[in-house]
Amino acid sequence: MTEDAADGAPGPVPPRPRRPSTPRPKQGAGSAASASGGKPRSPRTTSKTAAKPSGTSEESSEATAKPAPKPRAPRRKPAPKTPPPDATGADAAVPEAPAPESPGTDVAVPEAPAAVAAPAPAAGPGPAEAERPSGAAATDVVEVPAPRPSPVQLEPVLELDSLTKRFGHVTAVEDVSLALEPGTFTGIVGPNGAGKTTTLSMITGLLRPTAGRVLVAGIDVWKDPARAKRQMGVLPDRLHTFDRLTGAQLLYYTAVLHGLDRATARRRTEELADAFRVEHAMGRLVSDYSSGMLKKIALAAALIHAPRLLVLDEPFESVDPVSAMTVAQILRDFAAAGGTVLLSSHSMELVQRICDHVAVIVEGRLIAGGTVDEVRGDRSLQERFIDLAGGHAESIADLTWLHRFSS
Hints:
Rossmann fold; 15% strand; alpha/beta; 13 helices; Ribonucleotide Reductase Protein R1, domain 1; 29% helix
C-alpha cells in the first residue's frame, strides 16, 4: 500500500479499454501484427468476398462498406455575357426578341445583334407596322398621321320652313326657307317693301305666319312660345318700349323678367351701359333719349339675358359712326363666342363688312343666300344686289319741270 492509499485518497483511475469498431482478425493476421510489434489496422473497406465473422449478415457488411467516390465532371466556364446596348441609341428601349422554337425540329438560330426589334403581335400588325413603307427597317420610327376628325353637323339655331304670310290677296312673304348655324352672322337685305320686316316679325313671334313654321333651337315658336323666346333677343323696327322708365330701370327690369336674380341684373346693367357708352344717361328717362341712344339702350336690353339668337331690325339706323363701330364689335364678339345674329339693313357696305352670310329677299321671295363671297362673286355686294333686285336707271324726261324754278 502506498502513502496515498494509506491516507485514504483515491488513486488514479485506469483508462477504460476501447471497444474495437471492427471484427477481430483471424489468427494469422493477429500473429503478424504481434510479430511486428504494432496494433492490428482496421480495414477501411470490407469486400463481399472477404471472410465474415460468425453472427454477421451480408446486409450489415454492405452497410459498413463505404462506396467509392464518383468521378467529378469538369466544370464549364460560363459563357461571356453580351454587353447591353447603348442606352443612348435609338434601340435602347427595344427588348431582345426570343428565337422561335419548333417542337421536334432543330432550328439554327443566328447570333442576335446588340438590339433586335420585337416582332409584331400575333393578332396583326399595329398601326406603325401597317403604315411602314416597304423597305423600311424594323427599328425605323415611322410617323403615323393622326386621323382627321369627321366634320360635326351642328343643329341650326334658327330654321325657317316654307314660311309664308298673306294679307288678304297680297302675299308679303312666300315660301321662305332658311337655316342658320351657331356662330354665324347673317344679314338679310332687300328693297323697301320686300318683306324683310314681315319675315323678322314672324321669327320673333310678333306676327303669326299663314303657312310654314319657325324653329328656334329646335323649339317651335308658335307651339311653345315661352321656351322659344327665352332663346332670343329682339330689336324690332318700330321700337315701342317703356319710355317712362330710366335707362337703368329699363335694363334692370328686362333682366328680372328674363329670370335673372337682382345682383346679376344690376351687374349686367352697369356692364352694358359702359360697353355702349351710355352710362352718363342711365338716370334719365328713356323718352328723353335721341334716336341713336334709344337704339343702343334697346340693343342692350336684347343682350342682357345672354340669348342664343339675336334678331335685329335695322340696328344701325340713326346711330353715329363711332357708336356703330362699337355696336358692330360687340355683335362680332357675340358671334365669335357661338351666338347667332340675324339683322336687316339697307347698307350693303355695312353688311359686306361685318356679316359672313347674306340672304337677299325680293318681292317676298328668297332669291339668293349663302356666304357673302358666294353671293357677290367678283363684284361688290351692292352691285350684285342691284342686279338681283332688277334695278335700272329710269328716264327722267317727264321731270323736266324741275329745271324750271318757281319765281
